[in-house]
Amino acid sequence: MIETDDARTTTSAWRNWAGNVSARPSRTVSPASVPELAEVLRRASEDGLRVKPVGTGHSFTATAATDGVLIRPDLLGGIREIDREAMTVTVAAGTPLKRLNAALAREGLSLTNMGDIMEQTVAGATSTGTHGTGRDSASISAQIRALELVTADGTVLTCSETENADVFAVARIGLGALGVVTAITFAVEPIFLLTAREEPMGFDRVMSDFDELVAENEHFEFYWFPHTGNCNTKRNNRSAGPAAPPGKVSGWIEDELLSNGIFQVACSLGRAVPATIPSIAKLSSRALSARTYTDIPYKVFTSPRRVRFVEMEYAVPREAAVEALREVRAMIERSPLRISFPVEVRTAPADDIALSTASGRESAYIAVHLYKGTPYQAYFTAVERIMTAHEGRPHWGKVNTRDAEYLAGVYPRFGEFAAVRDRLDPARLFGNDYLRRVLGD
Question: How far apart are the C-alpha atoms of 33 and 26, rounded to whole Å?
Fold first, then answer.
C-alpha cells in the first residue's frame, strides 16, 4: 500500500469477500464528510477517472470494481438522527448493518425485516437490493423513507416521496450508478420479539405445502440439500414472549460448529474429492435438529456466515417457485454435477422500486451457492437457464450473465431508471464494465 499526501487516500488492490472479483483502482479515498466527497468527485472528473463507492465487498459481481477512484465510506458512519414521532432513523452510508441493528436495539427500536447477514454497509446493502424473506414485509431498500445522494456534479440531493420523488423512485436500489449515497433514512418500529421454529422437512412436503407455509408465517424460508430429499425449514413469527434465546452451548453447536466449522471441513473435502459430496449432503441434511427460540429481530433474522462461497440468486414470480425448483432438482439429478451447498428459497411481497427484484410482483428467491474455489460456471449456467425461462430477475449483487436487453424485458420500469441515470450522470462518472452490461451505455 502506498500512501499519498492525503492521509485518507491510498493506492492498493481491492478484492471482494468471496475473492472472485478484484480491481486495482488508481486511488482509494475515504472522505470524512459530504463536502470532502463532493471534492473527490470533482477531482476525479478533472482527472478523467471513473468513481465507484464500495462497502464491505459482499457482492459477488463487479458492481463496485473500478480502475479509477474507489470510495470507501468508512469515515461516513453513525446515526445522524432518531425521530420517534416519525419513527425513522437517519444513518450515514458507511454504517455496517450490525452496528445499526445493535444501536437501534439499545434505543428500543428495530427494522421490520432484514437479510440473513449484517456485515454489509447500509448503502451497499440497499444499493444492490439485499433482502430477507417475508409474507408482508419487503427488502431493506423498501424500508427507506429518504436518502441523501451526491451526484456527478457534486450536487447533494435529498430524495423522498415528496422531494426529488422521481430520483427516490429509482435510487433506493441504485447500483451505485446514480451517485454516491451518503445517508439513508429508514422506517423503524418499536423492538419486538420473533419466535423462530427450525425444522427438518422432506422436499416433496415443502413443495406441496409451499403456498400454505408462506401464507401462514410472517417469514418462511427453507434450504434444500442437493442429492437428497431433505430440507431444513425456518419459520419466524412475532411473539408476545418471553425471550428464550438459544442456549450458549446448543446455539454454538448449531450456528458455529455445525453451520460453520464442520460445514467448512465438509466443503473442503467435497472440493478435493467431489465423489464424496452426495454422502456428505445426506449427513449434513440430517445434522441440524429441530429447535425453537425467541429473541429480538436481528438475533433471529441473521446468522454468522464464515464459510466463504460464490452465489447466484434469481427472483421468479412466486407462483413459479415450485416448478422452477423442481426443474433445478431434476437438472442436478441427471447431470454429473456434485453440489455441496444447500439451495436457499425465500419470498417477498411486491414493492414499488424500479429495479427491485420484487418490483411490481410477488416474488420467490432461489439462491444457489458453491464453496469458494470450486468451479461454478456449469452449475450456475444451468440454473440460470431455468430461471430466465421463468422471467427471472437476477440479484444485482450476485453472479449472473444477463445484459441490458434481457433486463429491460423483465423490469417494466427499466426505462425510468435509465432516464434518471442519463440526467444525473450523462458522462458515466459512476460507470464500469458491469453497469455497462446490465444497464447499457
Answer: 21
Q: What is the distance between the alpha carbons of residues 292 and 298, in angstroms, rounded to a whole number?
A: 16
User: Please, which pLDDT band fits residue 275 given cuts at 50, 70 and 90?
Assistant: confident
In whole angstroms, give the CA distance from residue 359 to residue 350: 6
- What is the b/e burial string over 243-278, where b = at least 16 CB atoms within 10 angstroms of the residue's CB? eeebeeeeeebbeeebbeeebeebbeebbeeeeebb
Q: Tell me: pLDDT of 358 over 50.
A: yes
CB 120 within 8 A of CB 96: yes
Distance CA 160, CA 388 (A): 33
List all residues 6 or more positions away from 217 whose beta carbon is below 8 Å from its beta carbon.
135, 235, 236, 237
Judged on CB neighbours under 10 Å (0-12, 13-18, 19+), 416 is middle
Backbone angles phi, psi at 209, to 5 degrees: -105, 10
Q: Determine the Cα–Cα distance for residues 130 and 127; give it in Å rounded to an integer.
A: 8
Predicted confidence at residue 252, as pLDDT, reads 47
Lowest mean pLDDT, pick from 177-186, 288-297, 322-331, 347-356: 288-297
User: Considering only CA atoms, which of 44, 137, 142, 54 is closest in space to residue 93?
Assistant: 54
Q: What is the pLDDT of residue 1?
A: 38
Backbone region of residue 288 per phi and psi (left: phi > 0; alpha: psi in -120 to 50; beta: other values)? beta
Question: Which DSSP symbol is given to 196?
Answer: E
3-state SS class at 220: strand
Q: Which whole-number Å values give the CA distances from 215 to 118, 235, 356, 413, in the listed order?
A: 26, 11, 22, 28
pLDDT at residue 249 is higher than 70:
no
- Please give the Cα distance from 433 to 62 (Å, whole number): 8
Residue 251 has pLDDT above 80, yes or no: no
pLDDT tens for 46-63 read 999 999 999 999 999 999
Q: Is the pTM of this model over 0.85?
A: yes
Distance CA 305, CA 307 (A): 6
pLDDT for 322 beyond 80: yes
Amino acid (1-letter code) at residue 44: A
* Residue (of 40, 353, 369) closest to 174 by Cα position: 353
CA 131-132-133 angle, 5° bins: 125
